[in-house]
Amino acid sequence: xxxxxxxxxxxxxxxxxxxxxxxxxxxxxxxxxxxxxxxxxxxxxxxxxxxxxxxxxxxxxxxxxxxxxxxxxxxxxxxxxxxxxxxxxxxxxxxxxxxxxxxxxxxxxxxxxxxxxxxxxxxxxxxxxxxxxxxxxxxxxxxxxxxxxxxxxxxxxxxxxxxxxxxxxxxxxxxxxxxxxxxxxxxxxxxxxxxxxxxxxxxxxxxxxxxxxxxxxxxxxxxxxx
Length: 226
Known about the structure:
The radius of gyration is 21 Å and the shape is elongated. The N and C termini lie far apart (79 Å). The protein has a 6-stranded mixed β-sheet. By secondary structure, the protein is α+β, with helices and mostly antiparallel strands. The chain has 2 domains: 7-194, tt1808, chain A; 196-226. Residues 7-17 have low confidence and may be disordered. The protein has 5 helices and 13 strands.
């Protein structure tokens, strides 16, 4: 098949720009709304906190993924809002440069839909992640309308992930559910337990300590005594 016949090549057959081989700065636009920024930040903080003892996973978002030294760029393509690369060093990066990362692409990508990006996220990006990145799982979520879908790569094509009875979608890559909780996209364990943020974890621990103190007082014991 000639380059002109290759659908992946044809899809991105715009001007080729040659970049340095590594250490590239991200080239992402500002986020559109507080909802989008807060949602991306939440997903990153949740997973980093949940996997704080792991040293084999990179979690990031809204940074450019450079996947060719002669980068074929489309004006419609920008880096994923949230993505995870397994079996990778968690160190901070300016961007994700595939040829500087042993050829690794994200295992999981989440895009946040908006009026200006939804068509690209459902079309161009979905095809890119399926045909070029070969990303095993792709999800999208609209923080305003709460549209939520997920796809798993099956024999080279994305197939919709069937939600469970709570509307959650299972991620084989993360070994976690993704689902909507209080109007935000969150992570859940296999038994449905909500993955807490650092702040929620601290609050839960304080509530347990308060309940214990109340119990001790009811038994006539001062919890503040050494």
